[in-house]
Design goal:
Layout (H helix, E strand, L loop, with lengths): L6 H5 L4 H15 L5 E6 L5 E6 L13 E5 L13 H4 L9 E5 L38 H19 L5 E6 L1 H12 L4 E7 L27 H11 L4 H12 L2 H12 L6 H16 L8 H4 E6 L2 E6 L15 E7 L8 H13 L4 E6 L6 H4 L1 H12 L2
Parallel strand pairs: 3-4, 3-5, 5-6, 6-9, 9-10
Antiparallel strand pairs: 1-2, 2-4, 7-8
Helix pairs in contact: 2-9, 4-5, 8-9
Length: 387
């Protein structure tokens, strides 16, 4: 049974049922393969939403290969509409089953309350503080990571997936790398698509490192506002939901933003379908987004800056599996792409640790390279996953 919409969701005109309907119409229009919806209950009591290309039937490990697609922050499984068909063996790909998944706390998966407990009359009251800000003796980044990857592995078991190739985008790429550290025996290969959190910021200082950070007055006002909001764990999705409540135009705003972001690459009808889907996944109550502050941090310095993991992958190389091939691929105009210095340092560390990593660039593409240049990106994945 689907959860009933709360008061805020009703005011925003959204519900899990409406999101699933938008998901179905989007994928039916843009994906040729027959996709079966999966909603699997986990031991934790939560539900993971997914779609599967083979009717949800488990494939024994000796009878076929499975690819699992995991989205990034603020997205959902429907954004892989340009990639599912290409991955399937009947279309020249290397997989007999493709599964696309909504992380716990996103999309149409369960959205547990991830806001910190609030004191009724006094104390630490916040609309934004995350429940991952746990006791001082527990690492908040690890707590947030485990929230995602432990439930994801429970989904894998419930779906009857033995071993598989994991393909994760952006924050989903970071979580995929962390999953590989904890559950490497489940993996055939890993594809990290413009992954967040791969690289350390080298010697980049944070804004509150007054000895070497860029002086606040030298940082653009927009970036200072971003730093303030990030520190308070205010997410962009909260702002969009607030706009929708006040102005009742949330889906129209998303439609315009989508058209601008992807430079009118979609036909109007397709753009409207994607925007409707994106609006519903954004407008539903915030959950997994509140892990953003626990997993990532903005770093600014003179002339340089960006968003980095609180626990960068290149500081944990000894935990990465040596027997799993990994491809990390970025767009040629990707805002998350590393500097040459960062990339060279990572490659040297990987080689020294005996890791089997490759790096690739998708031309004419930014952060959403799997959407912006799908034919080239799909070929990169095909070449990498060819036995």
């Amino acid at each position: 049974m689907l959860p009933r919409p709360g008061v805020h969701s009703q005011l925003l005109g959204t519900s899990v049922a409406k999101l699933l309907d938008a998901q179905c119409r989007l994928l039916d229009r843009l994906v040729d393969a027959r996709l079966t919806p999966l909603r699997l209950a986990l031991p934790s009591g939560h539900t993971i939403n997914a779609v599967c290309s083979n009717g949800g039937v488990p494939i024994p490990p000796d009878q076929g290969a499975t690819a699992v697609l995991c989205h990034g922050l603020g997205a959902a499984l429907g954004f892989f509409f340009n990639n599912v068909d290409s991955l399937l063996r009947q279309n020249g790909g290397n997989f007999d089953r493709v599964v696309a998944v909504d992380w716990l706390g996103f999309g149409a998966s369960s959205r547990p309350n991830c806001a910190a407990p609030r004191h009724p009359w006094w104390g630490d009251f916040s609309l934004c503080k995350s429940k991952f800000d746990v006791a001082e003796d527990q690492d908040v980044s690890s707590a947030a990571t485990n929230f995602f990857i432990d439930n994801f592995d429970d989904f894998r078991a419930e779906a009857g997936i033995d071993t598989f190739t994991l393909i994760g985008h952006s924050l989903g790429g970071y979580l995929s790398a962390r999953y590989a550290m904890a559950f490497s025996d489940r993996l055939d290969r890993v594809v990290l698509v413009s992954p967040a959190g791969l690289f350390s910021p080298l010697s980049l200082p944070t804004l509150d490192d007054t000895a070497s950070a860029a002086p606040p007055q030298s940082v653009p006002l927009m970036l200072r506002a971003l730093d303030t909001a990030w520190s308070a764990n205010v997410t962009p999705f909260q702002l969009l939901r607030m706009r929708g409540l006040v102005m009742q135009d949330g889906q129209k705003v998303v439609t315009k933003l989508l058209r601008r972001r992807f430079n009118n690459r979609f036909a109007p009808e397709t753009n409207d379908l994607i925007a409707e889907y994106l609006w519903h996944t954004t407008a539903l109550p915030g959950s997994g987004e509140f892990a953003m502050n626990s997993l990532l941090q903005p770093v600014f310095a003179k002339g340089r800056g960006g968003v980095y993991a609180r626990q960068p992958i290149d500081t944990m190389m000894e935990r990465l599996p040596k027997d799993v091939d990994v491809l990390a691929v970025f767009g040629d105009s990707d805002w998350l792409a590393p500097t040459s210095e960062m990339a060279d340092q990572f490659k040297a560390k990987a080689k020294s640790a005996g890791l089997r990593w490759q790096f690739g660039i998708t031309p004419e593409a930014g952060h959403h390279l799997y959407i912006e240049n799908p034919s080239y990106f799909n070929q990169q994945v095909r070449r990498f996953t060819t036995a």
